[in-house]
């Protein structure tokens, strides 16, 4: 194997279009890996935060105390955010209306909004990952087709077509496909993994919201009953 | 769990992603060349024609011949010029002698005195140191030549030069004969036979050129004769002078004929050299295409055995029949791997009838019936 068939040499000698394709694929790969790392960190942190919050929530602490302990709205995440939104709405409505139905509806709405924000936050950039995963093989294939086209064009001018004259062209064309797959495969794997993770987390938030809702409901029943009596 | 840490930023992931790509790049750069050494060496083949000593030899000889022809031409031209000059000088002298015998006698005396002086001086100079003596003698000879016998001295020098050239030529010829020891004479004869046609065509043009040259020379001679006749008219009274002039003219004629003969010989020699050069060039051109054909055919027929050590190289000397059939293919220089050697010989045998040999010019065919092929695997150009 001499120097002319090494991969960096082939990349350097590729035609302009193929090099452009390779550049796009490299950038796509780097960005997808940035997203993969960032999302992984976010998911891990969200999972940890959720576990900690649930522990605290079910430890029998007073809800008012818990609400006071949690930071301001913008800084909370996950189930904490849902809890905060719901409890604040509950407190506000409690002062204004006596109808438990209206209170619970308001709480549910605000919790759904918070949950939707959480969903948005967790799924941020995952679409980019999906795009890289599905598009980069095609981009790489385009580079390969273009390179092989060029190789055949140059071959038509050559007097004698041996394997040695075709080989470098095809090798450098195939590098584009290899790079497309190189970008696509991790993107596919991590897209699946991360979207499953975010789905699971969102499911947990939803469960928590339901539980919290039922607690408030129970609380309201207990409170409205003496009020009604 | 009072305080949440901030949201995850993009700086660390970016660094990690770039580091990952760089690591992959480095890994590919370092590892790929080593890993791919095994497969391609068996697939790519190159056979190179190594020895075509005959063509290069011929080309060299052509060069030499050209140089030699130029040298000889210069020499002979100088000789011819000297002879002409000598003739003219002699003639002028004769006229003068006819005109002024008395003065000639005086002059002769003076010359004799000068000669005596010269001789004396020469003797003295011989006694003195060598360099000065040579210089003086030269100066003396110059003066003397101007006085009387420039032509003779010139002729002498020319003759010496010719003798020297002759000696040089003989030495060259000997060297050449040694070099051409193998089949040289045969090739030359073939080349000449081929060149015969060309020479005939050129001979026509040559004859025309010669006729022109002759006319030119005739004109010159006539002009010379005119001048002569004028001198004669001046010296009309003296019949001696006339007779002398007549004799002079005859001498001139002879000189001219001698020059002519010399020129013709020279031209023939140049012609022969030019033919040789043209043949060599033609042969080398045809040979190149033939070599390429052979190389390609052998390359395609070559099946390299597995497990050939890197850098193995075998030389196969091939001998062909007159129509391109294979007489013998033997290992000239073994690679040390018998399987490899065998594969090389088999490749030549498989590619064997090189019918393209018949398309070569007849003179080149003989040279390319024996050549060496070097087999070297894993060479990508």
From TrEMBL, chain A:
All copies of domain MotA/TolQ/ExbB proton channel, residue ranges: 77-206
Location(s) in or outside the cell: Cell inner membrane; Cell membrane
One Pfam short name: MotA_ExbB
Segments traversing the membrane: 20-42, 126-149, 169-191
Keyword Cell division: yes
InterPro entries reported in the protein's UniProt record: ExbB/TolQ_transport (IPR050790), MotA_ExbB_proton_chnl (IPR002898), Tol-Pal_TolQ (IPR014163)
Membrane topology: Multi-pass membrane protein
Keyword terms of this UniProt record: Cell cycle, Cell division, Cell inner membrane, Cell membrane, Membrane, Transmembrane, Transmembrane helix
Family: Belongs to the ExbB/TolQ family.
Role of this protein: Part of the Tol-Pal system, which plays a role in outer membrane invagination during cell division and is important for maintaining outer membrane integrity.
NCBIfam families, alphabetized: tolQ (TIGR02796)
Oligomer status and interactors: The Tol-Pal system is composed of five core proteins: the inner membrane proteins TolA, TolQ and TolR, the periplasmic protein TolB and the outer membrane protein Pal. They form a network linking the inner and outer membranes and the peptidoglycan layer.
Entries under PANTHER family matching the protein: PROTEIN TOLQ (PTHR30625), TOL-PAL SYSTEM PROTEIN TOLQ (PTHR30625:SF3)
The protein's name: Tol-Pal system protein TolQ
Gene name per UniProt: tolQ
UniProtKB/TrEMBL annotation, chain B:
Chain positions covered by the region annotation Disordered: 71-261
Topological type in the membrane: Single-pass membrane protein
Skewed-composition ranges (Basic and acidic residues): 71-91, 100-259
Transmembrane segments: 12-32
Main subcellular location: membrane
InterPro entries in the cross-refs: Tol-Pal_TolA, TonB/TolA_C
Sorted UniProt keywords: Membrane, Transmembrane, Transmembrane helix
Subcellular location: Membrane
Protein name per UniProt: Cell envelope integrity protein TolA
The species this protein was found in: Halomonas gemina
